[in-house]
Amino acid sequence: MAATRHDHRRCVSNALGAAALLCRRRGARLTSLRAGVLEIVWRGHAPIGAYAILERLRREHGQAAPPTVYRALDFLLAQGLIHRIESMNAFIGCPRPAEAHGGQFLLCTLCGTAAELADKRVEAALTTATARAGFRVEARVVELRGLCRVCTAAEARHAG
Amino acid sequence: MAATRHDHRRCVSNALGAAALLCRRRGARLTSLRAGVLEIVWRGHAPIGAYAILERLRREHGQAAPPTVYRALDFLLAQGLIHRIESMNAFIGCPRPAEAHGGQFLLCTLCGTAAELADKRVEAALTTATARAGFRVEARVVELRGLCRVCTAAEARHAG
DNA sequence: GTTTCATATGTTATGATATAACATTACATC
DNA sequence: GATGTAATGTTATATCATAACATATGAAAC
């Protein structure tokens, strides 16, 4: 079951445009290789692994080795343009790269899509809980696997 | 900087005792190999990787190969006796194996210790946020890296 | 108490993910 | 155009995880 229907070309071009703008403002170099990797990551709304990116990159850009991909991914992560999904060893485009980071990811086990939340109450609760423990948070990983809205509805229909 | 001082032998023996009891109640077989792996995991309060476990196992039990370790880990995970720390590809003993699962982990980047929380407000906030998104959660990964209380205090002293 | 079966473990090989180390190229600045 | 930094190419290897099949162990039936 795919995610909600939409014109995905707009997702991609919006993301690439925003990335170019952000990098220009920051003096970071979004080279064609890096932009190519970002574009590959953005082709789907499901996280993609480094070696899957590598395959595509080889077809389209010619030579490429694992470090080629990992270095581009490191750059994109540092700029907040993508996120790493720890529980999948995979990467997903960030829909709001200009804003503060470390959202919550909803990973559908059926259709594979990843959605990013930035829920204030979740973040506040985490802040309170960690503060009480005397813990100073530097990075958050919040990944929830389960069934997305579309797949839940589809399953309910079939169960009928 | 190590975690809070305590008699760690009691941690280990408590954990092994609780595990034996739980498995007996459930009709699950906590074999000597599995108990050995659990004991190795419990030796520290820092997550340990599968290959580090393998090394120790080889010294102490003789032959062992990666599947030996991964199978034991799979069993211990299924019984809720350990947790996998996704962002580290490592494993940590669960201090409350009898209770409901999926806590929040505080991972200190300085001393390496992992602490497990089970904060009701965090869990409630996650439930609310995911429900609003129409997402049905099956498993949660919440891992927070940063400085633990002890290391924060130590750092503050040195910064003097 | 031995047969039987399911479960656990041994063993070999390989797949999947990630990085180290060093050579070369491209690009901005002077 | 010279110069230095950042980016990329290239080879090799480290690290994490599982497939597939052989063997052994232990509980339950007989």
Sum this structure up briefly:
The structure is a homodimer of 160-residue chains. Chain A is α+β, with helices and mostly antiparallel strands.
Please provide a written account of the structure.
- The structure is a homodimer of 160-residue chains.
- The first copy, chain A, is 49% helix and 18% strand.
- With 160 residues, chain A is α+β, with helices and mostly antiparallel strands.
- Chain A folds into two domains: 8-93, Orthogonal Bundle (Arc Repressor Mutant, subunit A); 104-159, Dna Ligase, domain 1, CATH 3.30.1490.
- In chain A, a hairpin with a 4-residue loop joins strand 1 and strand 2.
- In chain A, helix 1 (8-26) runs antiparallel to helix 2, helix 2 packs across helix 4 (66-78) and helix 3 crosses helix 4 (66-78).
- The longest helix of chain A has 19 residues, at 8-26.
- The mean pLDDT of chain A is 94.
- Chain A binds a DNA duplex (30 and 30 nucleotides) through helix 4.
Write out the strand line-up for the largest beta sheet of chain A, numbering strands in chain order.
Answer: 4-3-5
Helix % of chain A is 40-55%
- Share in β-strands of chain A: 15-25%
Q: What's the number of helices of chain A?
A: 6
Morphology call of chain A: globular
The Cα radius of gyration of chain A reads 17 Å
Report the structural category of chain A.
Answer: alpha+beta
